[in-house]
């Protein structure tokens, strides 16, 4: 399956997830900006994929990326970020989202967040608990950041 065919709109995402669940498939949901893809992103998503049978990744829309990270972000437009994430072998489906909270997007079996969070600081924590969604912290220590990459690039001779 090509990366571009893994990037789907909301209705198609729901249709595919409903079909997968009918087959007994468990679903993990991860989300983020994924502005300049780096090894920390890969490790986060690979670990998230281990939490369920199907990994869905929700990529922040450009407007929400700007709201979270400030002017000048994202560097890479949402459609390209989504396609890059979809190209990772561990990712099954990708959608772009503009909402602040991703849990209602899909109501996954497990909601995965990176190690820059703890079980108590996940923004969707209360809603996930209320819906019976398990929260998992996945990936390696937060030693990689897009802002650091941007800083290095800016300081090149």
Overview features:
alpha/beta; 157 residues; 17% strand; 41% helix; five-stranded parallel β-sheet; single chain
Task: Provide an overview of this structure.
The chain has 157 residues and is an alpha/beta fold. Helix content is 41%, strand content 17%. The protein has eight helices and five strands. The chain has a five-stranded parallel beta sheet with strand order 3-2-1-4-5, with helices on both faces. It is globular.
Oligomer: single chain
Rounded to the nearest angstrom, the radius of gyration is: 15 Å
Structural class: alpha/beta
The end-to-end span amounts to 40 Å
List the helices and strands in order. HHEHEHHEHEHEH
What is the tally of beta strands?
A: 5
Global shape? globular
What topology does this entry show?
Layout: H1 3-6, H2 10-22, E1 27-32, H3 39-49, E2 54-60, H4 62-69, H5 78-86, E3 93-97, H6 103-106, E4 110-113, H7 125-131, E5 134-137, H8 146-154
Parallel strand pairs: 1-2, 1-4, 2-3, 4-5
Quick summary:
By secondary structure, this protein is of the alpha/beta class. It has eight helices and five strands.
